[in-house]
């Protein structure tokens, strides 16, 4: 018990409350951890954001979306373009009329398939113009449609608009 | 632990502990709604065209994040009432604390279910993008808020400190909600609370989501009532122990202090 | 059902976390209610 100023001889009325009998360490430890993890979260986010997030049609147009650097490229997987090889998967991604061929080492995870918007992490092969992806994320839309919905045919017809 | 006062003769019809008739009714309604949520979310609602059955995670993920927001807003409102009210009421401070605790639980659920959903649909558990990063910050901020509530000090000090923090960290919520619009994000934009009123959700899907929101709102109400009453008793017992410590020190005649 | 483990897992995590918090709240509340006098429980 480290009460340096001696006992407080004025009893407080119960409803007001007074100094706690013992110093509690846990809240301070938690608070320190919170500050550290807050810093980690921000630095992690900022360091990942170094890879510019670009739409396919912005490559070489928007500042930061240069062909020579690592990018996160967003586009829709073109209809009928997916070729699954032994070591790599090839497909085109499109956005706003522009198209980029992608080579991805391995099998993309998630719900990857044609006509879905994806984000590919990688770099351009300067000689061939091929985008060499090392990570594919499927960005699903905020629209939800039931599988056996009568709107399904209509939705499916609209799904791959860019390639039409 | 010694019994501070002999228990009064049973008020037999009332539930034990922090319960009342109201909490009992809310509790039963909560259980019924959660059963409905499981039924509609897992069985009756249809699978999604693109996402398949993984869309079912939405019915727990989205209501839990909304309730976390609601809990943190309740904390902020109670913080404001404490700070700017004439009475500087400790009662509202305890509601603020109880609500923040529940919000942190809902936030943890949101992050966990979101990671599972992300693994299925995006292919990754975590991605440092705008929505996920700001959500993680919000979660950590409220753990910090709870830690501040646990610091040494009087109950009035605790209430004042945490009220200031409660009013500051609530400002992160709009940042989280609109982060998908402010920055490019892997996360989809809001479906129901989007800017256009046209809800892009199938009827039965929307109903399942609605069931989830009702279930979690009732749950929040039930938890806040119980937890704030418990916090009241924790403060009371803390006061009693403090009084006893002061009396004990008086009896020692102050010999103990160095 | 594809990814059934993930889907049921998310429901189980949700119910587990909420259930654990609710159970702890009730338990602490009952223990304290036995220590505190009836007149100090304004909700009674």
Question: What can you see in these coordinates?
Answer:
The complex is a heterotrimer of chains A (164), B (258) and C (44). By secondary structure, chain A is α+β, with helices and mostly antiparallel strands. Helix content of chain A is 19%, strand content 27%. Chain A is built from 2 helices and 7 strands. Chain A has helices at residues 26-48, 152-159; strands at residues 52-55, 71-77, 83-84, 88-95, 98-105, 117-124, 131-138. In chain A, a hairpin with a 6-residue loop joins strand 6 and strand 7. Chain B is mainly alpha-helical. Chain B has one domain. The longest helix of chain B has 50 residues, at 203-252. Chain C has a domain at 11-35. Chain C has 1 helix and no strands. Chain C has one helix at 4-35. Chain C is rod-shaped and about 55 Å long. Chains in contact: A-B, B-C. At the A-B interface, helix 1, strand 7 and helix 2 of A face helix 3, helix 4 and helix 7 of B.
Shape descriptor of chain B: globular
If helices are DSSP runs of H or I spanning 4 or more residues, what is the number of helices of chain B? Answer: 7
* Tally of individual domains of chain B: 1
Could you describe the largest sheet of chain B, including whether it forms a barrel? none
- Tell me how many strands of chain B there are: 0
Helix content of chain C: over 70%
What integer is the average pLDDT of chain B?
85
Report the span from N to C terminus of chain B.
29 Å
Fraction of residues of chain B in helices? Answer: 55-70%
Number-wise, the strands of chain C total 0
Order of helices and strands of chain B: HHHHHHH
Q: What assembly state would you assign to the polypeptide chains in this entry?
A: heterotrimer
Shape of chain C: rod-shaped
Main sheet summary of chain C = none
Spans where pLDDT lies below 50 across 5 or more residues of chain C? none
Q: Find the structural class of chain C using helix and strand composition.
A: mainly alpha
Largest interface in this structure: A-B, 62 and 66 residues
Report, as a whole number of angstroms, the end-to-end distance of chain C.
49 Å
